[in-house]
Amino acid sequence: MRHVLSLIYGLFGALAAWVAAAIGANAFAFHAMESAGAPLPDGAWAKTKLIGYAGLAVAGLILGFLATLRLSPAGPILAGVILIGGQVVYEYKANWLELKALTEGLKLDPAALALPSATYAPVIIGTILLTAALSISRWRNPKAVAETTDYTPAEAPLGSTALNDTYGQQPIDPFAPTAPTYEPAPAAPAQPSMYVDDGEGATTQLPHNPAGQQKPPPPAYGA
Predict the structure, then answer these.
(1) Residue 133 is assigned to a structural domain of this protein
(2) Transmembrane region positions (predicted)?
(3) 162-209 pLDDT tens trace
(4) Which of 3, 153, 166, 220 is 20 to 30 A from 213 in CA distance terms?
(5) Per-residue DSSP letters for 129-144?
């Protein structure tokens, strides 16, 4: 459906832009004729530069809308083909552009519809529209792109709500302090000290003499 709507925009947009450009070009031509003192057709209204600039601006707005159309690139392609085709018709069958019923109804010059092609601008604008349609992103459905960009529980980023609901845990903070994973070694049992303090001086060490054993006397010299 979006391709059909884009084709409708491209068809009527290209034709409307061509007519707006023809009105603008006709206004510049009539202004030049009036400045030179040449007679104008009865009821001619497009004869000032302001109308000329307004017509060209409207044509630019329509073509800019077609170039940035997000529905489908089919519309810009059709518009580009119409503009380039109009230039080809002007080169070989210029009389096909003299639609007297339209020009007489708009009070324009009979050759007004051929004036946009006289500047060869349709070739430039048509090429721009065809180039804009080559973008890969324009061929994608915006709804499909929006669905693929949503996160699924398996693709949820770390710490997101989806991840917490799936695994039932809180977000992991890499900067939070962690408790030590080792246990301190048990303290060694207290050993009896070999040092005593008599309260009068420095601590002295008692000789090692097991209970119930006397120390033998030292040997006599010369014995």
Answers:
(1) yes
(2) 7-30, 50-67, 74-92, 112-134
(3) 444 544 555 566 666 666 566 666 666 666 555 555 555 555 555 555
(4) 220
(5) HHHHTT-HHHHS-HHH
DSSP assignment of 41-55: -TT----SHHHHHHH
- CA torsion 31-35-37-43 (nearest 10°) is 30
- Structural domain tally of the chain? 2
Total Cβ atoms within 10 A of residue 81: 15
- Structural domain for 118, as ranges: 2-139
Q: Does pTM surpass 0.85?
A: no
Task: Single out the residue in 96, 117, 139 at which a domain terminates.
Answer: 139
Same domain assignment for residues 19 and 37: yes
Q: Which helix (H) or strand (E) holds 25?
A: helix 2-35
For residue 159, the Cα-to-chain-centroid distance in whole angstroms is 25
Backbone φ and ψ of 195, nearest 5°: -110, 140
Between CA 9 and CA 161 the distance in angstroms is 43
Tokens representing residue 93 in the block: 């069958």
Reported as a single tens digit per residue, the pLDDT across 130-168 is: 987 776 666 666 565 555 545 444 555 555 554 445 445
Q: What is the distance of C-alpha 81 from the center of its chain? A: 29
What residues does 195 pair with on adjacent strands? 205
Same domain, 79 and 165: no
Same domain, yes or no: 116 and 83 = yes
The verdict on 18 and 32 lying in the same domain is yes
Residue 149: inside a domain: yes
